[in-house]
Amino acid sequence: MLRLILPDTRYLASYLAAMREGFRIGIRDIPPEEEIQKIEQDPFDHLEGINSQGGFFTPPDGIERKRVPYNDYWLVNETDFIGAISLRYELNDFLEVHGGHIGYGVRPSMMRQGYAKKMLALGLLKMKALCIERVFVTADDDNPASWKAIESNGGVLLDKAPSIFHEGHVRRRYAINIKD
Ligand SMILES: CC(C)(COP(=O)(O)OP(=O)(O)OC[C@H]1O[C@@H](n2cnc3c(N)ncnc32)[C@H](O)[C@@H]1OP(=O)(O)O)[C@@H](O)C(=O)NCCC(=O)NCCS
């Protein structure tokens, strides 16, 4: 059975294997081997850090902003880590235009099996449970796997604009109504 869970040491070995395959969420970097080894040596510190709240971040426009409340969930079956989804419960001016509420990634060995579509559907249920009625999600125009997952979850294209994350690329911005 597929479910979203908070990061859990029971899936650590599978998570590390996914990282070594090149798993990443959205625009986050693929961690180098040294970083993966550090996580292997001190997994508790890493897992705790995944959902630490507060602090600041500086997006590519160079303006520092407070981090919004969020959670990273893992998509798992009985034995395997499959992917992860980052749910941001509020937007700031930057996220409203460039990043949206949600980012996600599926481990390479499990891509093209419908997991992104399923993970996004489960993520939207969590947003709905928090009474969030309209969700913005962005995807690069040249990442059809991502925008098809959004469209199959009811995403309506709002606009296209130059990507601030990937120079020379175009990002699509979608809205998904989850009220009903
Ligand atoms: C984008 C990503 C999450 C898609 O995951 P996935 O599990 O392979 O996606 P799914 O199997 O659910 O497929 C979703 C749709 O895209 C299609 N698709 C999948 N891979 C595709 C590809 N490489 N090219 C074109 N279409 C593709 C599927 O056929 C499906 O279409 P359908 O709705 O018409 O059936 C995955 O490629 C990934 O992790 N990429 C790196 C991180 C990233 O780009 N994240 C998204 C930005 S937030």
Which cofactors or ions or other ligands sit in this model? coenzyme A
How much is the average pLDDT? 96
Order of helices and strands: EHHHEEEEHEHEHEE
> CATH first level: which class?
Alpha Beta
The low-pLDDT segments are none
CATH fold annotation: Aminopeptidase
Shape: globular
Number of helical regions:
6
* Share in helix: 25-40%
> What's the main sheet like?
4 strands, antiparallel
**Arrangement of strands in the largest sheet:** 1-4-5-6
Q: From the 3D coordinates, which CATH architecture would you assign?
A: 3-Layer(aba) Sandwich
- Total beta strand runs: 9
Provide the domain count: 1
Report the portion of residues in β strands.
25-35%
Structural account:
A hairpin with a 7-residue loop joins strand 8 and strand 9. This protein has 180 residues and is α+β, with helices and mostly antiparallel strands. The relative contact order is 0.15. The chain has a single domain, classed as 3-Layer(aba) Sandwich (Aminopeptidase), CATH 3.40.630. The two termini are 25 Å apart. The chain has a four-stranded antiparallel sheet, sandwiched between helices. It has a three-stranded antiparallel sheet with strand order 7-9-8, sandwiched between helices. Strands 2-3 form a two-stranded antiparallel sheet. Helix 1 runs antiparallel to helix 2 and helix 5 crosses helix 6. It is 32% helix and 27% strand. Coenzyme A binds next to strand 6, helix 5 and helix 6. The site of coenzyme A has 21 residues, from strand 6, helix 5 and helix 6.
